[in-house]
Amino acid sequence: MKFKKAISLLLVCVMTLSVFSVSAFAVTGEESTYVPDYDRETPVIIVHGMSQNNTYLLDENGEWAKDDKGNYIYGWPLHIELTALLKAVPALLLSIITRQDAGLSDALNKAAHEALYVIEKDNEGNYVNDIDVPCYEMPMSELPASVKEEYYKFLPIQELGELIGEDNVYYFGYDSLGDVVSTADRLYNYIHNVVLPQTGAKQVKICPISLGGTVATYYLNEHPEDYSLIKKMVFVVPAIDGSNIIGDLLTNNLSVYDDDKLYSDILVSILGETPLSYILNMVLRILPSSVLKKALNGLVDGVVEVAAQNTTILWALCPTAYYEEAKAIWLEGDEHAVVREKVDSYMEARANFPDNLAALKASGTELFDVACYDVNLFPLCKDYQTTNADRVIHAASPSMGATFADLGTTLGDDYVAAGTYCSNPEHNHLSPDGVVDATTGLLPCTTWYFKGQAHEMLPDNDVALELAIHAMVDDNIKDVYSNPAYPQFNNGRLTKTTNLYIKTWEDADKSGIPEENKAAVEKAIADVKALDDETIVDIEAWTAAEAALGQALYEAGLIENPEPSKFENALTEIAKKMNMGVNCFYDKINSLKK
């Protein structure tokens, strides 16, 4: 099961898909007198991101198909038929013995097709199998309890319903691996045929999240007549210029083709500093580098062919700078004309996005954005060690063009803000850490930035979600200066682990726990709750408080040790040094060959 989850995570990210203390970000030390003004009349439409709506394979009876164990077979999250990958084992063994590609690359290519059969499409972008994409034409208040619970697991936005009523909250469901053109058309119909008639409202607010940003990009281009209907649009980590991961995937430019990264960094970055990651690095040496790369290329090509080549919404994640090269590789020829025409149309919409956004703003729509930065791209991306990103998307994309220093660097002490979209001398849109110039982004005065925040973990950032919700419903929030509780530059934080710790304590049988341990846990919980109330994040204090709570629960006998043991650390260090030794050996061998 862990192997399947690792493969799933790898493919999800393929297809998408120095910390500072609070003083660095605080804008005021005074008590805020800010008073909110909540709009409880205008309905909100959530346009979710990838992985935030399940899709299902249908059986011959038109019902959701199940596997031999009675589990639903999903289109998304990805269903991976692992037995198909095992069919490549004979070719792998033969390649190891012969030290050459004995059909391994072809076997892995075929295995990718069979493993991902559920999402396979024809050359016109239509599913080969029947897929059901749930989209409920009703507000959150009327959803079946199980569906509402699922949506709130994807996006814990319960506060939105508490503030404006669940009758005014709509969750637009679509296929994360579908057609971007028809999805944008469906959003238009959803607004006009569902939300406006059901609520009687004259306007809507739209919240495009991640992949939802690509849907919104095409919708805005195709339906400018709707601009006056949109009261607010709050983008949350939107993939406006796609993701470099998809660009590298579609141009055969992944990091796995670089020996230095393949044998040293990639698996460690994915699996963490563990003995397993270093051991697997050494295992990769079983095959000659050229054979291994050819095999990986066969696997990657198979994934692209079955999952991406004819999937327009994934093409919408291809950055503009990569598109012409990628199109020449995958979309040439009459057989790809239908998909190519749709993707060309989307790329035109993206090119028009700055003008469309300006026209939308001129129509009276209030525009906001939430972006993250200072996290490595997923390690399959070629430049993951230097590109400033949020792990899934390069940071320039969700920030709509802001300028970022490379990871581990700053823009420089003498850097002067470009002032492209804001030259107001009273504004300062340079981040206190010297990493971000927000003035080159399309919305410099209404874009907030969270440092060190991973894209896929944003639903676990309570401050970012609260900010997005309040920007959506609070009419007194006009820009990044409106409410000092939400400065333009902040630290990211995750509350999931802390919440699990607190629940563990609340559910525990405390009868046998010594009083001193009870007191330690209660104090640690009080400390994290006090920090949890702060919207300006002191990440060092938060990390220390969470660690203290974990340690207190461990000492109370309620959880396993959250920190690696000395033995585990020693084993990791041994495996690391062995891996370095093996790499040095092969480096010398290769240098002698030259």
Task: Explain the layout of strands and helices.
Layout: H1 2-15, E1 44-47, E2 55-57, E3 74-76, H2 82-86, H3 89-98, H4 104-115, E4 131-132, H5 145-154, H6 158-164, E5 169-172, H7 180-199, E6 204-208, H8 212-222, E7 230-236, H9 244-250, H10 259-262, H11 266-271, H12 275-283, H13 289-308, H14 312-315, H15 320-330, H16 337-351, H17 353-362, E8 366-373, E9 403-404, E10 436-437, E11 447-451, H18 462-473, E12 489-491, H19 496-507, H20 515-532, H21 539-555, H22 566-593
Parallel strand pairs: 1-5, 1-6, 6-7, 7-8, 8-11, 11-12
Antiparallel strand pairs: 2-3, 2-4, 9-10
Helix pairs in contact: 4-13, 6-18, 7-8, 9-15, 12-22, 19-21, 20-21
Give average pLDDT, whole number. 92
What class, by secondary structure content? alpha/beta
Strand tally is: 12
Gross geometry: globular
Quickly count the helices. Answer: 22
Cα distance, first to last residue? 43 Å
Strand order of the largest sheet: 5-1-6-7-8-11-12
Q: Mind telling me the C-alpha Rg?
A: 25 Å
Name the beta content range: 5-15%
Q: Mind describing the biggest β-sheet?
A: 7 strands, parallel
Helix percentage range: 40-55%
Pick out the low-confidence regions.
1-30
